[in-house]
Amino acid sequence: EVQLVESAGGLVQPGGSLRLSCTPSEFTFSPSAWNWVRQPPGKGPEWVATIYTYSRATRYTNSVKGRFTISTDNAKNTLVLEMNSLTADDTAIYYCNALEYWGQGTQVTVSS
């Protein structure tokens, strides 16, 4: 079974940046789309962004547009989420997803 392994999140100050990555355990795993989903404390899951593997088209939830960038590193078969201008509202556990597979989740905390 494919496992999606996420990089560590962390604590970042408001206005800061953080990069998350997600790597499948099987190098040949190549879904047609990848997603990032987050769950803020005390709230339900929230879709963040999608990238379509072949067209490379991307979609974002409104609250992260212009600040987050989803991409794939095809050479490394890795999904990436670049997060800039972070605010406290971005504090959440972030999950990568493709098909029925989910990463283990990584905590991102934005606080001074």
Task: Write a compact overview of the structure shown.
The chain is mainly beta and 112 residues long. The protein has strands spanning 4-6, 10-12, 18-24, 33-39, 46-52, 58-60, 68-73, 78-83, 92-98, 101-102, 106-110. The protein is built from no helices and eleven strands.
Polypeptide structure, described:
This protein is mostly beta strands and 112 residues long. Helices cover 0% and strands 50% of the residues. The chain contains no helices and 11 strands. Strands 2, 4, 5, 6, 9, 10 and 11 form a 7-stranded mixed sheet that branches. Strands 1-3-8-7 form a 4-stranded antiparallel sheet, with no helix packed on it. Strand 5 (46-52) and strand 6 form a beta hairpin. The mean pLDDT is 96.
Comma- or semicolon-separated keywords:
single chain; 112 residues; mainly beta; seven-stranded mixed β-sheet; four-stranded antiparallel β-sheet; 11 strands
| SSE arrangement, N to C | EEEEEEEEEEE
Shape: globular
Helix amount, in percent? under 10%
What gyration radius follows from the Cα positions, in whole Å? 13 Å
Low-confidence stretches: none
Topology, element by element:
Layout: E1 4-6, E2 10-12, E3 18-24, E4 33-39, E5 46-52, E6 58-60, E7 68-73, E8 78-83, E9 92-98, E10 101-102, E11 106-110
Parallel strand pairs: 2-11
Antiparallel strand pairs: 1-3, 3-8, 4-5, 4-9, 5-6, 7-8, 9-10, 9-11
